[in-house]
């Protein structure tokens, strides 16, 4: 099975997301807060495409202010930003992947993102 189809436990990844400030000190508060939100939002095990879709759903839910799975209002400081800020979050996903995922998995994540833009 190639890396593109393999799922990965998100346990360690979620710990890294929660501490994104340490891994991406050059970034900003919005991206660090996104890492914390993703650490709580993402499933326990994901494929590369699942990571991409999970982060996209998380950003979408933040933009709408409602969790699409539970239909509950999201109480988070990332809710209510101007639309452009959610695009900034999306643009940061490849760098976040590099910071928190194993190298081969991050490469596959970035391939999924590139293919989705075609």
Report on this model:
The protein has helices spanning 11-18, 20-23, 29-41, 48-64, 83-100, 103-116, and strands at residues 8-9, 45-46. The protein is mainly alpha-helical and 118 residues long. It has one domain (8-112). It has a two-stranded antiparallel ribbon. α1 runs antiparallel to α3, α4 runs antiparallel to α5 and α4 (48-64) packs across α6 (103-116). The model has no long low-confidence stretch (mean pLDDT 95).
Blueprint of the fold:
Layout: E1 8-9, H1 11-18, H2 20-23, H3 29-41, E2 45-46, H4 48-64, H5 83-100, H6 103-116
Antiparallel strand pairs: 1-2
Helical residues, percent: 55-70%
CA(first)-CA(last) distance:
25 Å
Strand content: under 5%
The pLDDT mean sits at 95
Give the count of structural domains.
1
Order of helices and strands: EHHHEHHH
Biggest sheet statistics: 2 strands, antiparallel
- Strand order, main sheet: write it out: 1-2
Shape annotation:
globular
Q: C-alpha Rg, in Å?
A: 13 Å
What structural class do you assign from the helix and strand content?
mainly alpha
Low-confidence stretches: none
Q: Report the count of strand segments.
A: 2
The number of helical runs is: 6
Quick take:
The chain is mainly alpha-helical and 118 residues long. The chain is built from 6 helices and 2 strands; from the N terminus they run βαααβααα.
Features:
118 residues, mainly alpha, two-stranded antiparallel sheet, 2 strands, 63% helix, 3% strand, globular
């Amino acid at each position: 099975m190639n890396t593109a189809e393999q799922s990965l436990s998100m346990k360690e990844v979620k710990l890294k997301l929660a501490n994104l400030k340490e891994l991406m000190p050059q970034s900003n508060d919005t991206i660090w807060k996104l890492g914390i939100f993703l650490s709580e939002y993402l499933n326990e095990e994901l494929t590369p495409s699942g990571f991409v879709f999970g982060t996209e759903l998380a950003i979408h839910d933040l933009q709408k202010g409602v969790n699409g799975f539970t239909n509950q209002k999201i109480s988070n400081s990332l809710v209510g930003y101007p639309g452009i800020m959610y695009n900034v979050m999306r643009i940061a996903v490849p760098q976040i992947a590099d910071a928190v995922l194993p190298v081969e998995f991050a490469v596959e994540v970035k391939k999924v993102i590139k293919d989705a833009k075609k």
